[in-house]
Amino acid sequence: MSNLAEVSVPSSALDSLAAVYKASGDPLRLEILRVLQRETFGVLELSQIFEMRQSGMSHHLKVLSKAGLVEPQREGNAIFYRRPLQPAEDSLESLAIQQLFATIDQTPLQPHRASAIDAIRRQRSEQSRAFFARYVDEFREHQELIAEFERYAEPTAQLIRSRVDGQFEHALEIGPGEGAFLPTLSRLAQRVVAVDNSDDMLARAQSRCEDEGLGNVELVAGETDAVLARNEQFDLIVANMVMHHVPSPADIFVDAAALLEDDGLLVISDLCSHDQNWVKANCGDLWLGFEPEELSAWAQDAGLAIGETLFIGLRNGFQIQVREFWKLSNTRTNVQTNPQPTLNH
The HTH arsR-type domain covers which part of the protein (predicted)? Predict the structure, then answer.
C-alpha cells in the first residue's frame, strides 16, 4: 500500500477558520453580511434596517469584525462597516469567507430589508441635494479647496481621447454639476446625455450649454435610474468627482454596466481615501474618498474589466485616482491592466 503524503495545517489556521464559522453561525449575522454585499453602512443605519437597538447591532458587528467578516471604515467622526475586499492570499480562512459570501449572495434580500435600504439611500440623496441647493453659489469655490477642475479634467480627457479614433457615438456624464466637462464631452461624442439630481446645478449646466452652443447635449434631472428607464445604451460613461457625493457608490458600477454597450468605456475620477473630515460640511461629501481596491472590487462585481489607473497627487494632501473600466465583448481581451505611475502636482 502506498503512503499518502500528510499535509500539516497550522493550528492557528484552524482557529481562524473556526472563528469564521462560529461568527457566521447565526441567521441575523448572515443577513447583515448579505445587506453589506455592495453597501457600506453605519451602526445606526444597520440598526434602522434591522429594527433593533444600537447596542445589539454593535455586538453583532464586533463578532463579525473579529472574525474578519466585516471591516470598519472611518468616515470622519463616524464608523461605517463593509465586507472586506477580496484577499490576495488563498488561506483556508479567506477561501472560507469567499465561499460564504458567494453562497449568501444567492439569497434575495427580504422586501422589507430592501425597502429600508432604499429609505437610507433616499436620506443620503436628500442630504446631498439639500447641500447643493444651499451652497450652489459657493460650491465651486469650496470644491477647489480640494482640487482645481483642470487638475483632474485634463488627465481624464486625455485618457478618453486616447481610447477613440474619431468620436464616441453616445456619451453619458453622471453628475455634471455646473457642466464644466460638457464642452469636452460635446467634442468627444456625437450625442451627450448628462444626468444630475440637483435642479440648481442643472440650471447652471443648461446656461453653459446655451452660452457655448452645445447643441448635442441633453440634460436629464434625476439619478442613473432615470437614464436606465429610457432604455438607452452608451459607448462612453464619465463620472468626475461624483462618487463621494452619491448614496451608494457601488451602484454606479452596476448601473454603468447596464447602460454600456459591449466594449463600452467607463471613466471615473475621484478622491482616494483620506481623513480630512471638513469636506463633509464644506463640500457636501458623503464619503471620504475610496481605496483603489474598493473601486476595482465593485467594478469586477458588476462584470466590468479593469483598465488603466492614473494617480494625481496634490500639494494639499489629497490624491485623485482616474480609473478606466470596460464592458468587454467576448472578442475583446486587450485591456491594459497595469497602472500608470503616480503624478505629483
Answer: 9-103
Residue 39 pLDDT > 90: no
Say yes or no to pLDDT of 71 above 80: yes
- Gap between the Cα atoms of 67 and 24, Å rounded: 9
Topology at the third CATH level for domain 11-109: Arc Repressor Mutant, subunit A (1.10.10)
Query: Where, residue-wise, is CATH 3.40.50.150 in the chain?
Result: 139-344
Q: Pinpoint the residues of the chain covered by CATH 1.10.10.10.
A: 11-109
Nearest to 175 by CA among 196, 199, 148, 189: 196
- What does the radius of gyration of the chain's CA atoms come to, in whole angstroms? 22
237 touches 265 (CB < 8 A): yes
pTM: 0.78
What is the rounded distance in angstroms from the CA atom of residue 281 to the CA atom of residue 39?
Answer: 23
- Neighbour count for residue 69 (Cβ, 10 Å): 25
Q: Which stretches of the chain are assigned E, i.e. beta strand? A: 41-42, 71-75, 78-82, 168-174, 189-196, 217-221, 234-240, 260-271, 305-313, 319-327, 343-344
Instruction: Tell me which residue of 163, 279, 266, 280 sits closest to 224, measured CA to CA.
Output: 266
Cell triple for 149: 477642475
Query: For 159, what's the count of Cα atoms within 13 Å in the CB-facing half-sphere?
Result: 27
Given a cut of 60, whether residue 11 has pLDDT beyond it is: yes
Domain 139-344 in this protein, CATH class = alpha beta
Mean pLDDT of 98-120: 92
